[in-house]
Amino acid sequence: MSFDRSLKIAPSILSADFANFGAEIEAVEAQGADWIHVDVMDGHFVPNLTFGPPLCAAIRKHINTVMDVHLMIAPVDPYIQAFADAGADVLTAHLEAGPHIHRTLQAIRAAGCKAGLALNPGTGVEDIEYLLDMVDLICVMTVNPGFGGQKFIHSQIDKVKKLRAMIGDRPIHIEIDGGITPETAPLMAAAGADVLVAGSAVFKGGSVSNPAPYGDNIRAIRNSIG
Ligand code: DX5
Ligand code: ZN
Predict the structure, then answer these.
(1) 141 CA to centre of ligand 2 in angstroms
(2) In this structure, are residues 125 and 119 in contact, taking their beta carbons and an 8 Å threshold?
(3) What distance separates the 2 farthest-apart alpha carbons in the chain?
(4) What's the number of domains the chain is made of?
């Protein structure tokens, strides 16, 4: 996985057909997805449950791009090795998931994954100064994590601008997660984001047997950015 700041669209399989993940992933990749975003929820850190390492391992062989695993779980550390073994390229933990995020990020890199740090909408950027040299990606949540299809929180635009300035020349991706549409994507790209997660806006109107809307939806987001 080489680093570059070109725009990447990462469909979230949270909005795909849960009975057909392999085919859904192959369909969105064929329709132009750059990364595949995998939302892991534990019913404790967030009020929703999805899936764990065995599911990630099972879908890994259907992903030809980047497997971007977003852990909405607490604690994180006991599960890092299992998600690394499942084939995660990027493993993202939340700053809010526990008191020892520094140790968690060290452990993610030690397990051979790119380390991602996610920030809830209510979390400021001042606490990440001493983490900047140990992360490969910062995920700015533009909804409160737990569900797809929520409304974009505009106050996060300012956070992304601040983050972009803090990052400087460091090879750190800025990822945006939540409420991305052709209307909100350009705001985030202009603020400095390079990875846009989109669930409902990519999967709406399409299916494995009718995948063309996935391509239309991905292009609509891409083309919204000047
Ligand atoms: C929310 C998840 C998101 C979600 C985004 O907790 O982390 O990745 O799937 O869904 P949309 O794009 O529908 O807001
Ligand atoms: Zn996510």
Answers:
(1) 8
(2) yes
(3) 48
(4) 1
The CB of 15 under 6 Å from ligand 1? The reply is: yes
Question: Residue 17: which CATH number?
Answer: 3.20.20.70
Question: What pLDDT, in 10s, does the model give residues 41-54?
Answer: 999 999 999 999 99
Atom of ligand 1 nearest to the CA of 70: 7
- Residue 88 is encoded by which pair of tokens? 């995660």
Residue 93, ligand 1, Cβ within 6 A = no
What is the model's pTM? 0.98
Domain ranges, residue 118: 8-225
In a domain, 52, yes or no: yes
Is the CB of residue 50 below 6 angstroms from any atom belonging to ligand 1? no
Q: Is residue 2 part of a domain?
A: no
Q: Is residue 3 part of a domain?
A: no
Q: Are 5 and 171 in contact (CB under 8 A)?
A: no
